[in-house]
Amino acid sequence: RHRRPSSGLRRRVDRHRHLHRPWQKSRSCIKAETGPPYGGRPLTGYDFSLRQLLGHTSGLPDYYSLASYRKGVAANEEPWPAAQLREAAMAQGRLFAPGKGWFYSNLGYMLARDQIEDVTQQSFSSLVKQMICDPLSLRSVELALTRRDFDRIHWPSASGYHPGWVYHGCLTGTAVDAAKILHALFMGELLNAPTLSEMRIHHPLGGAIEGRPWTECGYALGLMSGRCGEAGRVIGHSGGGPFSVNAVYHFPDLPTPITVASFTDGKNEGVAEFAAVKAALRD
User: Fold this and answer.
1) Residues 6 or more apart from 40 whose CB is under 8 A from it?
2) Mean pLDDT of 162-179
3) Cβ proximity of 124 and 143 under 8 Å
């Protein structure tokens, strides 16, 4: 079962900016189970695999590190053409050879989305609907494409934001549906057991982080994965942007495994993470 979010968030529509990562990985794995190529082979035209893109071991830089990108977002400018974004990001240079390090790269997720759409010959939004939302009977989740799509977001400061700045895709929906999706993933409703097990293999990244509940940190395929003290293992994703932060996590070590979705305003992901852990332990 999933934990219903508290603090009146049941009917609010929130931005699931960073929750697209486990969903994106889930779609990749679903397609692997039904035919198209997936996994460890280098992608055509590249020296890294889809697995390395999703696990952040491709060596690609991140586009958020570009000062001009952050300036454009802050000034509420129109998003750059995708080709311009890729060129600017890659001008920073490769960080390491594929598989020889770890660095969080939104550019990698952008390329992963392109690969998924190329292989399936379907749009990102269609795949989300067909492979995740329809099977789980979810009605709130949508891919935001225009400024107007953010009119339904709970946070007043979200008004006018252009989701095109999130080049790998920006999904919106209720906190309840965010929790339902992640819970369904870990309950085996979206992937078979071997594929889900592969998705959960993580790359250790260290211990505690000041101001956040993590006591052990790592990253799996599209999933932040570690431990949070007495809550035990915690798997899911945190995220943030110009006006809100979120933490949507599954807690498999509790007597009854649950999933919690926590959204709040501000820019401190630790606030949402602590709230998620507290809610999980209170259940």
Assistant:
1) 49, 51
2) 94
3) yes
What is the pTM assigned to this prediction?
0.86
The answer to whether the CB of 220 falls within 8 A of the CB of 205 is: no
Per-residue model confidence (pLDDT) at position 241: 81
Nearest CA among 122, 67, 61 for reference residue 86: 61
Q: In this structure, what CATH number is given to the domain that contains residue 146?
A: 3.40.710.10
Question: Which among 173, 166, 171 has a CA at the least distance from the CA of 73?
Answer: 166
- CB 43, CB 49: distance < 8 Å: yes
The residue type found at 106 is N
On whether the CB atoms of residues 99 and 11 are closer than 8 A, the answer is no
Question: Going along 115-176, which residue ranges are E strands?
Answer: 142-144, 170-174
Question: What value does the CA radius of gyration of the chain take, rounded to a whole number of Å?
Answer: 18
CB contact set of 265 (below 8 Å; sequence gap of 6+): 155, 157, 243, 244, 245
Q: How many domains does the chain have?
A: 1
Interval 114-129: pLDDT, tens = 999 998 999 999 999 9
Domain that holds residue 18: 13-282
226 forms beta bridges with: 234
Locate 150 and state its tokens.
Answer: 């953010």
One DSSP character per residue, 173-228 reads: EEHHHHHHHHHHHHTTSSS-HHHHHHHT--EEEES--TTSS-SBEEE-SS-EEEE-
- Mention every residue, 6+ apart, whose C-beta is less than 8 A from residue 237: 18, 19, 21, 22, 222, 223, 224, 247, 248, 249
Distances (CA, A) of 243 to 65, 142, 279: 19, 19, 23
Report if residue 4 sits inside a domain.
Answer: no
Which amino acid appears at position 214 of this protein? W
19 in any annotated domain: yes
Asked, for residue 2, whether it belongs to a domain, the answer is no
Other residues' Cβ atoms within 10 Å of the Cβ of residue 6:
14
